[in-house]
């Protein structure tokens, strides 16, 4: 019998609420125990530690219900996830019974929920804590040693004469705005050449996605509210994202925050560019004499099912030799850059990237093309270290070059 | 034993052997190495929690850990994928989990002598991704193919779905490096050469070290068979109006003598009903199709093309209706993913509840299949009715013999168990149910287990009955090789061997 004489502490109430929300989902996995997720998991492939498996993540919820563990004892395990979504796709519950039972294994949401539960319980990871604090302070992620300031968020666009506002807004991710600036420059150039009208935000803050992925929900929400208010003040209806992480944040997190009021159309730039090519509004005429393969960005391929448009674009580039690897095979690939792994466990993220480059090298390519700016720093580091080295392009940079636009790309 | 009982000096020794980051003492590291996918008494979780886990990377480290365990009399439980269904990797006395997942390197691929040497933590699918570049496969194909590891396959003497052509794990392991229960490292094979498939030198030990469920040592390297990547995979599914016709047809197909035939699998009526629960995903066939037989062939185009024609003819002449290419190819291709779905669990009122999968896996002579099946279903229905947390998921019958797929069958009876409802009474009920099922197998000249091992409660009680005097020989061997009873103690009731000694 439950003893009702003892008042519940805030911590117990939090735990009860968490367990109540996740227990059924947890038993869906616990009762299955197939573990097919394991060998496709990019983190598990490196650490081989059973605590880091999606099976363990779900079992931990059951263990919590059974009084076997507290959140403080499992929080560190939940760092070991890039939220790539491979495990969800590979889960037999999703693959073969999902449609009928309207069931989907939601490991990514579970990982986010446990991280949030941990933060709320005062269990924080030191590097994530510092990262989010810095982001809150500067309004954008601290992607560089140099000062990240809101005044410089559109510095990447210097000389492009882009307007502020309009019905269509180009949202430029922090990593792209401050670090790989050739990506937004390429995207802006492509859109202008194709006659797409767009503008920038008045004051673009971080999308808030990374904070949400690390468990800092309040901070994430603050960023979201600012950005949506900025969009509304500009009369925006359509948001173009160039980063798959933003695309996830705007299509999954923001609707949860704002409900039906969130009525913006969110477009990822690869979908748009493929459409522009199809409609003949963009022409690629400058041959790129390179042999490349494509890195399926996890958040496009595994989380959103976007794998055709990047391939369509690559096949439209003249001179390019494209060695494709099937998008299902790439369920087990990742750069390691997602969900803060590279911040909290850089050595694991680097090893995931090294293996991804190694697979590219087996195809005897000159370059690996990605469509995720976050992946590109890690992959470039490993590509440079490889022998022979492998260049890393963003798909937009490659398209810009093929369209005769100076992407301003620096190979690094 | 709990973590506090591995004294600080022992922990320090372990950290010196492995490096501190590979000695895991956290609560989550321990509770997540307590169970396998088999039904688990959730309410008694704490009884199975080990003291700690280690992640070795070399044979030498494994050997040192085992020697340390002997010095301090600490139980050792080897764990590979933890995907087994007989609790081999579940600790019964706490102790040290030797988790070999980080030992996942390919050590040598030898195309000339057709072998690959690996560490035990590698998964078959991952291994085959590498072997593809050389035109080979390692044809060990359990239902858990995407996640189980070579070490666990050896530890359980696993069953391969395509064994009719390629053999089972025990046929595919040529030799092994094994750390014995006292820590010495030896090579076990057919004779002394690491790549010799057949030898008559002295006693043949290979089978002894395959399927012991971690009670006789830890495999740290294995030299495995390579076969040419098949040019053709052909699968044909047949439908039947009733089980008996399908059983007759199964026998005819299995005895056909075609060397490329890798498997014949019979789905009984209850199994087809179970698969139809989701209405569309499985075998979308008319209702008069009540039993199904699946067949698969592998080999060169020259072998398989004519053989497939004959196989189709036999299937049809023995009462089957070919179910078409889409079902045949699609269902065979997805065989690993479909072996059980917790969402198909139903409470007695029809309510959908997530159920854990129990897979009974007896080996049964063909001539006894009909009677065993009937008795099994009667037993399960009794327990379903009485306890309300079990669910009959039907039966499969797979050709069991390596290379000659006839004679005896892996008889798989699947039962769903609503783990969330388990308590002492229902768990005891479940163990009694299992015991009854196993008794039927033995009564009809079968074996309790074809592929998982008979180490779980309910099965293990009957092992002495099944094996008779041979079980006494096993206890003598266990005592001789593991004088301190540190290797997976409590498994196979081998503690009896030591009780005899002290008395």
Description:
The complex is a heterodimer of chains A (412) and B (503). With 412 residues, chain A is of the alpha/beta class. Chain A has 20 helices and seven strands. In chain A, the strands form two sheets. In chain A, strands 5-4-6-7 form a four-stranded parallel sheet, sandwiched between helices. A three-stranded parallel sheet of chain A has the order 1-2-3. In chain A, strand 6, helix 19 (373-385) and strand 7 (391-394) form a beta-alpha-beta unit. The longest helix of chain A is centred in the first third of the chain and has 21 residues, at 10-30. Chain A is globular, with a radius of gyration of 22 Å. The N and C termini of chain A lie far apart (63 Å). By secondary structure, chain B is α+β, with helices and mostly antiparallel strands. A seven-stranded antiparallel sheet of chain B has the order 15-12-14-13-17-18-16, sandwiched between helices. In chain B, strand 5 and strand 6 (115-118) form a beta hairpin. In chain B, helix 8 (243-254) runs antiparallel to helix 10 (301-317). The radius of gyration of chain B is 23 Å and the shape is globular. In chain B, 55% of the residues are buried. The mean pLDDT of chain B is 94. Classes of the chains: A alpha/beta (412), B alpha+beta (503). Chains A and B meet through helix 1, helix 3 and helix 6 of A and helix 2 of B.
Q: What is the average per-residue confidence, as pLDDT of chain B, rounded to a whole number?
A: 94
Strand segment tally of chain B = 18
Shape of chain B: globular
Distance between the termini of chain A: 63 Å
Query: Order of strands across the biggest sheet of chain B?
Result: 15-12-14-13-17-18-16
Order of helices and strands of chain A: HHHHHHHHEHHHHEHEHEHHEHHEHEH
Unreliably modeled segments of chain A: 1-5
Percentage beta strand of chain B: 15-25%
Strand content of chain A: 5-15%
Distance from N terminus to C terminus of chain B (CA atoms, Å) equals 25 Å
Helix/strand structural class of chain A = alpha/beta
Please give the number of β-strands of chain A.
Answer: 7
Number of helices of chain B: 16
The main sheet of chain A orders its strands as 5-4-6-7
Mean of residue pLDDT of chain A? 94
Structural class by SSE content of chain B: alpha+beta
**Cα-atom Rg of chain A, whole angstroms?**
22 Å
Low-pLDDT stretches of chain B: none
Name the pair of protein chains with the most residues at their interface, and give those residue counts: A-B, 41 and 53 residues
Give the helix level of chain A as a range of percent: 40-55%
